[in-house]
Amino acid sequence: MKNRIIIVFFLLTIVSCISIKGKKELMSLNNIGDSNTLRKDGYYYTESYVKTNPYYRNEYGGYVRDSTKTFYQVRISTLALKENGSAMKLGSYSGMQDNLAYNFGIKCDLPDNNTLESAFEHFQCYLTELKNKNLFFLNSKAEIWDQGIYKIENNAITIQIFYNTIGDYNLYEETGIIKNDSTFVLTNATDFQTGKKHEINKVYKFKKMKNFPDIDNYVLKNKKKFSKN
Predict the structure, then answer these.
(1) DSSP code per residue over 100-141
(2) For residue 157, what pLDDT is reported?
(3) Strand 71-81, strand 183-191: pairing
(4) Please, which pLDDT band fits residue 134 given cuts at 50, 70 and 90?
């Protein structure tokens, strides 16, 4: 019992020290978002090919990595943009067993295929599960993880997202050019925690999805905390 009390006290001490940094560098919440430049009836993704090892199902029903073999796994990194200025990174996904291990694929009865289309299916299955679940955070500030805002000026796009670093949340900015209503390329990045800037090359393409879940955005839900007025 004593050990449990110590653990709970330790966790509460950690979460009470969590802070959100980079508020000064955060864009003004006025004039963010976009009504018609980019499509919003789905999500955006970047495509990558990651060298990794295959998994096989073991005698206990779990998955084990086979380190003697390698292959290139198709993955997508996902991003949701809303008309009101909300920007959210929703993780990286494949159509392989690393997702099935979390039962998202199993519940949707998805095949195990190393294809782009299969990665879409696994991600969309995850969103369906997310829509039916309520996440619990010891500290409500944790909701800001991978969330932020964006704005569009002419054909330029700026995306600012908060990321986690040892419990604290720091601001990261990416900027680029819009090619058309379903494609944009991010070319520069700034980490406001370190002050470092570097060039990137992330091509985001649009994928339509019906009934995309409405996920709350911490920044927009707490505008007074981030207002510069």
Answers:
(1) HTTTHHHHHT-----SHHHHHHHHHHHHHHHHT-----SSGG
(2) 98
(3) unpaired
(4) low
